[in-house]
Amino acid sequence: MVGGKLHQGHKAIVGEGGGPLGAAFDPFRLEYDPASGTKVPALELPKGLTPDRLADREGLLKAFAAADRRADELGAAGKLDDYRGRAFAMLTNPAAAERFDLTGEPDRVKDRYGRTRFGQSCLLARRLVEGGVPFVQVNWSDHVEAEEDAGDGGWDHHYRNFQIMQDRHAPWLDRGLSALLADLADRGLLDSTLVIAVGEFGREPKVNDKAGREHWPGCYCALAAGGGVRGGRAVGTSDAKAARPADTPLTPADLNATVLHAVGLTSEGITGLGLTPVGRVVAELF
Q: Helix-strand-coil percent breakdown of the chain, rounded to 5?
């Protein structure tokens, strides 16, 4: 999920990767186990390492970094120090760590999202948005293939497409995503939060000899909700085999332009940042 609190309090949540909210690197990966619950390993301090000791290590690291730094490296090093500082703040700030702690959420809320990694990640996304985090990304899994990955295999359904969709992926996605949208609406956050669910390609209309479907970049869809989007609208259609767009073809650049528009970045503003605007805003959504 990706977002930006830049325009009228708007944020955005975008799921992306190897299918509807598929695979991509996530440094704050949420682990879910039905017996032990949820945890975020990246935010856990090693055993015996207190926040004070971690701060001492940060000071030592800075001392080493400052010992021999050439003038032409100061700019890049300063940016790296800034990122390191944010990481240390995340680890040592109790308020920040509390946002990643799902233990206080009622069981009925956890059940509403679904007891899967994706479902609990959507719950975590709501907590982060509620806490003021402007950009949030939720990935389905950390690889694209459909093999078991703590129950959440990726969306590359080269085999057993129909079984996996029916038994796992479709109900898990429906439950987690619908709970996120309903929860944001219940808390008065949906109008100021743009939610996008999208992958990077569709599935071939032809079924292969393994009851699977291959990659198909020619036609696929995205879901947009909240953030000023008018619900219940379908923009564009496909042909009878879902092989090609039949009308109103859109591109990833158009989706990107729409997200930037929703968070308040105009083409003039993008140009002012030294970037070249590409794609058109999908005005039909608003």
A: 40, 15, 45
Does some domain include residue 5?
Answer: no
In a domain, 133, yes or no: yes
Residues 220 and 268 in one domain: yes
Q: What are 273's two structure tokens?
A: 């940042």
Give pLDDT tens digits for 41-55: 776 767 667 777 777
Residue matched to tokens 């969709």:
165
Contact residues for 20 (Cβ-Cβ < 8 A; gap 6+): 140, 155, 169, 173, 197, 198, 199, 223
In degrees, rounded to 5, the angle at the alpha carbon of residue 196 between the alpha carbons of residues 268 and 248 is 70
Q: Looking at the structure, tell me whether residues 227 and 138 fall in a common domain.
A: yes
Query: Residue 148 pLDDT > 70, yes or no?
Result: no
Q: Which tens digits make up the pLDDT trace of 70-116?
A: 545 555 556 667 777 777 776 677 888 888 899 999 999 999 999 99
Note the helical H segments in 100-160. Answer: 107-113, 117-130
Res 20 pLDDT > 70 = no
Within this chain, do residues 247 and 164 fall inside the same structural domain, yes or no?
Answer: yes
The whole-angstrom separation of Cα 67 and Cα 78 is 14
Predicted local distance difference test score (pLDDT) of residue 147? 67
Q: How long, in residues, is the chain?
A: 286
In contact, 225 and 178? CB cutoff 8 Å: no
If one compares 149 and 46, the residue with the highest pLDDT of the two is 46
Q: Could you tell me which residue, 130 or 43, shows the higher pLDDT?
A: 130
pTM here is 0.73
3-class DSSP state for residue 136?
strand
Under 8 Å between Cβ of 217 and 278: no
Residue 131, in any domain of the structure: yes
| Alpha carbons 243 and 238: distance in angstroms, whole number | 7
Dihedral pair phi/psi, residue 235, rounded to 5°: -105, 110
